[in-house]
Specification:
Low-confidence stretches: 115-126, 389-396
CATH class of the largest domain: Alpha Beta
Distance between the termini: 34 Å
Shape: rod-shaped
Number of helices: 10
Largest sheet: 5 strands, mixed
Number of domains: 3
Radius of gyration: 46 Å
Oligomer: single chain
Number of strands: 11
Strand content: 15-25%
Helix content: 40-55%
Structural class: alpha+beta
């Protein structure tokens, strides 16, 4: 039930705190109001009873019943007919009420019955009690007092609390949004950095903590750029330093007189050259050097099909209209070609499919081969991992094709997923989000 975002959690805490504070404030104000109102009501009741007692004292006993009937009326009713029997009044208001009555009635005996009624908050409350005392000649007289004291939650109090709550809530929401906005910008910048290392640095402004975070983020980006530049220089040196001696050795191998020995040397050198080339392709595939362009996916798949079929390989395309995607065309082509060559090598035939799905683009390559054991599906996308343990390129490949495809998919913010098809064969699916780059 807890919100997952920091914004949602802060809003929940603030709103919960406001509601609790407002309820506590309302409770305190209502209690104080009840005390003040009760004191006023009891004072008025004591004054009225005292006046009626003095009037009845001066009234002849034969006329008191008629006088009591004339005096009775809301909120005070009078009776001079016998004693009153009922439940004694209890509660914290009894002592204060007795004190007030004695101040007005003197030393006359007083008996209080009933109490303040407890009713739901949305009903009017009533101050209700009965009092029995005696007139100066000893005749008992009973007073019944019943008066509404208003609503449990006064209208003006409710309006004041509501206005205060809304005002504080609006200010709190604004403050929470203002505080969390820099965090959202930092998260967005971190996401962009993973897709484009050359994205603009964060502006170092705002609160002290935000400036420190932005400065640290920009420093990290600068160090990454420096690292990638150094790596690019190393790749260029590797390409020159490794390929040049391999080329020289190949030329020297051509001069060998023994045909069998010559063939073995050339074969080993070609394998070395291929391994160096593929390794450099992996490094290039994991870089962000290529510019983003709008790619005609249908045309890209058709060009890959044409290239493969020229070498006698069987490639089929399932078309779903003209699809365009903003990405790195050469990198995407390298990823798809790797999947196609992998499918043809192990499954004889490759079927390409591209379709727009919810949230992005799905590129899939299926084959009719034996598939991959379920426990190996994640391992085969790791660099240099091969299911065939002989390390022979004729039987097991280089172990880099799927790793390159996975790296290119991740550069675009997507994923590469391998799965065995129920009807047989392997499916390699690349999901590319619409706003991947």
């Amino acid at each position: 039930m807890m919100p997952k975002s920091l914004l949602g959690r802060m809003i929940l805490i603030l709103v919960g705190g406001l509601i609790f504070g407002q309820m506590l404030s309302a409770e305190i104000q209502i209690r104080e109001r009840e005390k003040s109102l009760s004191k006023i009501i009891w004072t008025q009741a004591a004054q009225g009873i005292s006046a009626y007692v003095r009037l009845l004292d001066e009234t002849p006993q034969a006329d008191r019943k008629r006088a009591a009937a004339l005096l009775s009326g809301a909120p005070l009713f009078v009776s001079v007919e016998g004693n009153f029997s009922g439940e004694p009044m209890r509660g914290e208001d009894v002592s204060s009420l007795e004190k007030l009555l004695h101040e007005h009635l003197g030393t006359r005996p007083i008996k209080l019955f009933s109490s303040l009624e407890k009713v739901p908050f949305y009903w009017p409350q009533h101050a209700s009690f009965s009092l029995q005392t005696t007139l100066k000649d000893g005749q008992p007289v009973v007073f019944m007092y019943n008066r509404g004291v208003g609503h449990f939650l006064p209208r003006r109090l409710m309006i004041n609390l509501l206005v205060l709550f809304v005002a504080i809530l609006v200010l709190s929401l604004f403050a929470v949004h203002w505080v969390t906005r820099p965090l959202n910008l930092l998260a967005k910048a971190a996401d962009e950095l993973g897709k484009n290392i050359h994205s603009p640095p964060l502006p170092e402004k705002g609160s002290t903590e935000m400036r420190r975070a932005a400065r640290a983020f920009n420093t990290m980006q600068a160090r990454l750029l420096e690292y990638l530049a150094a790596r690019a220089r190393i790749h260029a040196a590797m390409s020159h330093d490794l390929k040049t001696p391999i080329t020289r050795l190949t030329l020297r191998a051509e001069m060998l007189e023994d045909p069998d020995l010559k063939a073995k040397f050339i074969k080993d050198l070609e394998e070395m050259d291929s391994m160096v080339t593929i390794s450099l392709d992996l490094m290039r595939g994991m870089s962000n050097g290529e510019a983003v362009q709008t790619v005609d996916i249908t045309a890209l798949l058709e060009s890959i099909q044409e290239d493969q079929m020229e070498t006698g390989k069987e490639v089929e395309i399932r078309k779903f209209g003209n699809i365009r995607y903003s990405g790195k065309p050469q990198a995407l082509k390298r990823a798809i070609v790797n999947l196609v060559e992998n499918a043809i090598k192990y499954g004889k035939k490759a079927t390409l499919c591209a379709e727009e799905v919810e949230g992005g683009l799905l590129l899939s390559v299926t084959d009719e081969g034996p598939g991959i054991p379920e426990d190996k599906l994640d391992l085969v996308t790791e660099p240099f991992y091969r299911l065939e343990s002989s390390r022979s390129r004729e039987t097991g490949g280089s172990g880099l094709g799927l790793a390159i495809a996975k790296a290119i998919a991740e550069i675009h913010g997507g994923t590469l997923k391998l799965s065995n098809r129920p009807e047989g064969g392997l499916e390699a699916a690349i999901f590319l989000p619409k706003k991947g780059l």
